[in-house]
């Protein structure tokens, strides 16, 4: 029996080094509540394409919190700007 601590397992994966088919299998459902300092450019499109849907699936209290304290940061991270600067 190994004396090494067990690794946390995400989405039923056997180990942290086992590849997955997509980020949605390893990123928590409530990921918009968190704010990374940066996103690897290889994953930027995934976050841009999934941001609105992920926010809409948060419970209402989390949606309010996310909108008030994290949304502007996510817009700057994903698009380099904030909503009011976007020409929609």
Could you explain how this protein is built, in words?
With 88 residues, this protein is mainly α. The protein has a domain at 28-82. Helices cover 36% and strands 0% of the residues. The chain contains 3 helices and no strands. The protein has helices spanning 44-56, 60-69, 71-79. The longest helix is centred in the middle third of the chain and has 13 residues, at 44-56. It is globular and about 35 Å long.
SSE order and pairing:
Elements: H1 44-56, H2 60-69, H3 71-79
Shape: globular
Low-confidence stretches: 1-13
SS content category: mainly alpha
Quaternary assembly: single chain
Separation of termini? 59 Å
| Percent of residues in β-strands | under 5%
Helix segment tally = 3
Number of strands: 0
Question: What would you say about this model in short?
Answer:
With 88 residues, the chain is mainly alpha-helical. The chain has helices at residues 44-56, 60-69, 71-79.
Task: Give the tags.
single chain; mainly alpha; 0% strand; disordered N terminus
């Amino acid at each position: 029996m190994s004396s090494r601590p067990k690794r946390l397992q995400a989405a039923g994966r056997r180990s942290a080094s086992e590849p997955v088919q997509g980020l949605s299998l390893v990123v928590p459902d409530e990921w918009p509540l968190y704010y990374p300092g940066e996103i690897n450019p290889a994953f930027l499109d995934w976050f841009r394409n999934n941001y609105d849907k992920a926010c809409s699936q948060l419970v209402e209290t989390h949606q309010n919190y996310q909108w008030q304290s994290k949304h502007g940061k996510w817009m700057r991270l994903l698009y380099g700007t904030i909503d009011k600067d976007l020409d929609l």
